[in-house]
Amino acid sequence: HLENVGFIGLGNMGSHMARNLVMAGYKVTVHDINENSMKKFADDGIPTKQSPLEISETSDVVITMLPSSSHVLDVYNGSNGLLRGGGPLRPWLYIDSSTVDPQTSRNISTTISRCHLKEKRGYAEKPMILDAPVSGGVPAAEAGKLTFMVGGLEETYIAAKPLLLSMGKKTIYCGGAGNGSAAKICNNMAMAISMLGVSEAFALGQNLGIKASTLTDIFNCSSARCWSSDTYNPVPGVMEGVPSSRNYNGGFTSKLMAKDLDLAMASATGVGFKCPMGSEALETYRKLCEDGSELKDFSCAFRHCYAGKDE
Ligand code: NAD
Hints:
N-(1-d-carboxylethyl)-l-norvaline Dehydrogenase, domain 2; 48% helix; binds nicotinamide-adenine-dinucleotide; 6PGD_dom2; transit peptide; NAD binding; 3-hydroxyisobutyrate dehydrogenase activity; oxidoreductase
């Protein structure tokens, strides 16, 4: 039932995810608007298609891994989009792993629920959809160790789990449509705030005469310990193999972080909730992007905000 997988969006993340599906034995067909990205797959004998609509014609399940909401809406509803066949749909399952706002996920889910299947396939009487954004970044995508946060019907989640686990190490069911996206943007808002908090504390420590490496040792066995202190330290020279040790290159760009904070703030406004620290973090990341660090890893906030300008 899940044999033929269409994959759309072969960027930093999606290219690795699609290749892991191929390695797991799925029959994968791919599409990207970027011809160069598609050529790499074609050269390896993996079938490519020129539009989402063509992908949908040969797939049982379609996975999208696109930059943001507008791209996802385009791929679903655009003139050659997944849902523009003009009749019943062939894929019975749609999985969007892009980081988008929960409302976009819910809108697409509502659209899908109005569609019909071409034939009765697998577990579903009607086409199903999951929002399944990921955490883990490019190295985890490559190693097949992503974590999926999944929103949608629980039975659909259970049916999709083996497929997700061929690209990741963990799946977490978050509830109905849009809840995976909600979980993802909350996670990233907390990550941004903790990165800025840790960076500020390291900078204060340095100004008070404590070395960042000493303070890191203390944080990591004390109550300030967090991912930004023990796994992704923002101070150059404290940890090896993280973006701060290579001039903040590679990793998760400040531009994507600003996008995710934007989604979180827009979602908060949508439900009349205020996030003062989230909006402060958004301002910081917007400023950082304007100042030319948009393609640097988001941990460059340490150098940029607290230890002088980024180069
Ligand atoms: P990316 O920009 O590297 O890749 C996106 C791909 O989508 C590109 O190849 C682009 O050509 C393609 N694309 C854009 N519009 C298209 C369209 N209309 N039709 C077909 N293809 C189209 O982005 P990425 O880093 O792979 O991230 C993808 C998503 O995953 C984003 O939402 C991002 O926030 C999220 N994410 C990224 C990371 C990370 O570390 N990079 C980690 C977790 C989540």
